[in-house]
Structures are given as C-alpha cells and as structure tokens.
Specification:
- It is a single chain.
- A hairpin with a 2-residue loop joins strand 2 and strand 3.
- Helices cover 27% and strands 31% of the residues.
- The protein is elongated and about 55 Å long.
- The chain has one domain.
- By secondary structure, it is α+β, with helices and mostly antiparallel strands.
Length: 134
C-alpha cells in the first residue's frame, strides 16, 4: 500500500514540476495570441508570428500549401529523475536505492505542437493546434 502511495506522490510531483518548468503563458493566452493573425495574409503571419513569445521553438520552416500554413513547433519540458525506494527492505524502511547520479537531476524532452492556419485566398480564416504541448 505504501509503495502505491509513493508512486502516486511521485506522479503528482512530476506533474507539478512540469507545470513549474513550463512557460507561464496558459492555453487561453496562446490561443488569443494566435487568433490575432486571423484575417492576415500568410506573408504577414510568417513575418510577424513569434513562437518564442508563446513558449515554443521552430522545429522546421513553415509549410505553405494552397489552403494552409503549418508550423511544427517544440516546447522543452524538464522531467525530474526519480529516486526509487527499495521494496526488498519492507514497508516503512524508507531506504533509497542508489542510482548512478547524472550531472543534472532531470532531463529535457521536446514535445511537438502543430499550429495550422486555414487559408482562403491566402488569408487566414481559422487556426488549429494539435499535439501534446498545445
């Protein structure tokens, strides 16, 4: 039972740590930022869109098609390295299992987000986001 509780506490810690290490702009603010480009041409969007300001990095150049302008962006999330408990010591022993230490006690993961502007006659009519970090 204590082992399950430990796993649950660790999972909660990871989620909270991920929230702390992520950009301060929330989903609604990111969507509001992207909505301001509705009604603009694809050229204006390409020159004015700043993915860094909403916490993303360019993965590749934007992809322009007849009816869409698509960005593939990544956001780096820092995940802490867990410290395991030794189940062989019994419940309540609390003895940690030695894990070879890394230079940092966390590792970074880049998660992708696809941002697509739907175009009509080269003018943005809508924006859609999909992916794990959107």
């Amino acid at each position: 039972m204590k082992f399950i509780l430990s796993i649950g506490l660790f999972a909660a810690y990871c989620m909270l740590y991920g929230c702390v290490s992520s950009p301060t702009m929330n989903t609604m603010q990111r969507e509001a930022y992207l909505q301001q480009f509705i009604g603009q041409s694809s050229d204006q969007i390409r020159t004015q869109l700043d993915l860094n300001s909403i916490g993303y990095q360019h993965v590749s150049p934007p992809i322009l098609r007849a009816n869409s302008l698509t960005y593939i962006a990544a956001r780096s999330i820092s995940i802490p390295v867990p410290m395991a408990q030794n189940p062989a010591m019994g419940i309540g022993a609390g003895t940690s299992v030695p894990i070879p230490s890394t230079a940092a006690q966390s590792y970074d993961v880049n998660l992708n987000c696809r941002i697509s502007f739907l175009l009509e006659h080269n003018i943005a009519k809508a924006v859609h986001m999909s992916g794990r970090t959107c």
